[in-house]
Amino acid sequence: MSGAGLRKFVQFGWNQALCCAFPVVIFAALGVTKWLGSPLIPRYDLILVLCIAAQAAMVLLKLETADELKVITLFHVIGLGLELFKVHMGSWAYPEDAWTKVAGVPLYSGFMYASVASYICQAWRRFELRFQAWPHPYAAVGLATLIYANFFTHHVIPDLRWLLMLGLVALFSRTWVSFAVGGRPYRMHAVVSFALIAFFIWLAENISTLLGAWRYPNQATRWDWVHWGKMSSWFLLVIISIIIVAQLKDLKYRVLPRAAGAIRKGEAEAEAPPRRG
Questions:
Q1: Per-residue pLDDT reduced to its tens digit, 110-166
Q2: pTM exceeds 0.85
């Protein structure tokens, strides 16, 4: 590797590390409280306090913008909704007691979904992400809605995830994502980027369960690797996350400015003196 190539690689790694700031905080909180304990308050409650403090610090230090915080909060709510249902259905469990547990779900769990959104928002800004041949918004949002619904409905009707994945590949078959490192542009097929993010989240999930963040049924007596099939779930959740972020950014930078312009035009016309016939 040439000197310039090495510098690009280091810069890419540094930007990725900055994008992972909030997930790293969660891992650190899980690890420290796992090995050192939490003598004053229950462990899950301490993790919640640390997550809130980290989120506030990132905004105050300008590592996250106010708009990104809104997106992250939305993901926190979406994640909690999924957690409440999945824990109720026995898909996984949080074995430790906590004051901030609702229906068996500690409130810090929503931050794990929020950390995925934090990574996407940070990467979007730091790597100047751009998508080419993005699907029609109605098709993208419709697919995201079906994927999210399937996480609930597959408990009562057949699991449609593989059909949804086929539809996803077809919908994004022409979509590429471009990113910049040190001003130099690169690009990758969108589906490949989704799969890579899902793989690394699956690795993070194995570390999280090892640290006692939650527990799958096969980990009830001793820790074991999370089944590789869970990568399909994360792959679909990554799609939902990116579609939401992409459409919100489209709303902000395309639809809202246009609407604001129309409002200003209407106000100017209302204030203008009437024309003489």
A1: 988 888 888 888 888 888 888 889 988 889 999 999 999 998 998 889 999 999 999
A2: no
CA angle 157, 145, 117 (to 5 degrees): 120
Q: Which two tokens stand for residue 20?
A: 């992972």
Banded model confidence at residue 30, pLDDT cuts 50, 70, 90: confident
3-class secondary-structure state, position 188 = strand
Q: C-alpha 100: how far from its chain's center?
A: 23
Question: Cα(246)–Cα(164) distance, rounded to whole angstroms?
Answer: 19
Unique residue bearing structure tokens 């026995």:
90
Of 3, 9, 1, 6, nearest to 186 by C-alpha is 9
Looking at per-residue pLDDT, the higher value among 45 and 224 belongs to 45
Q: Cα(first)–Cα(last) distance of the chain, in Å? A: 75
Going by DSSP bridges, is the β-strand pair 184-189/176-181 parallel, antiparallel, or unpaired? Answer: antiparallel
CA atoms 53, 58, 61, 66: torsion sign: negative
